[in-house]
Amino acid sequence: MKLTDQIAAIPLFQGLSRGEYEDLAMIVVDQVIRRGQTIFEEGDEGSGFYVILSGRVKIFKLSPDGKEQILHILTTGEPFGEVPVFAGEKFPAHAQAMEDSRVFFFPRPAFVDLVKKTPSLALNMLAVLSRRLRKFSSLIEDLSLKEVPGRLAAYLVYLGEGKKGGSEVTLEISKNQLASLLGTIPETLSRILAKLTREGFIKPNGPRQIQLLDRKGLEELASGERRLA
Which of 2, 81, 102, 118 could be disulfide-bonded to 49 (CB atoms 3.0-4.6 Å)? Predict the structure, then answer.
């Protein structure tokens, strides 16, 4: 597939003209990031932003004692590191590849020049940032207001969106990573998964496969209307 066609398929850049895709193709840097490789660290200069072509990337913070708190897990088509492009600031968190990944890197100076010529680029990015902000606000609410069973239930409901009742979902991250994402520890996560199984909400079908037996009940746990016994 031509480079311009690959860029046109990225949601962030949909609706632009062929000439604008060609302009973007002139500045993009195609990179392969190996599993476990650090893409940038918190405090690094925000030299540009990235879009994932394939693979997965986690965005996370580290506490002074080294504890990891995952903020986002991103996959194909999603941008990251885009805030410093407009703010001219340092990266506010760490980014690391969770598996072998291919990304497009857009250097800040060249991209800002394109935005000045093509305001629709900025509008597309603002829409993406708005959605990211809503998602981040939801994460903060979950971590501060909901108990861990409610956070886990909300995550399972999210994985099952668009699927039929009683459907199977796949945990695409390890239990340690899921615990970090939910703001808990692996031991607590395992206990809650066991409780959800005993009470008939879910049924594990393998190391990472979970069947959602009672979606309505999970939704009630997620909203706080119901609590585990």
Answer: 81
* 202-211 tens-digit pLDDT: 999 888 889 9
**What does the chain come to in residues?**
229
Select the more confidently predicted residue: 134 or 149. Answer: 149
Is 113 contained in some domain? yes
Q: Which domain holds residue 173?
A: 146-223
> For residues 118 and 20, is the Cβ–Cβ distance under 8 A?
yes
The CATH number given to whatever domain includes residue 38 is: 2.60.120.10
Q: What is the DSSP string of 110-154?
A: HHHHHHHH-HHHHHHHHHHHHHHHHHHHHHHHHHHHS-HHHHHHH
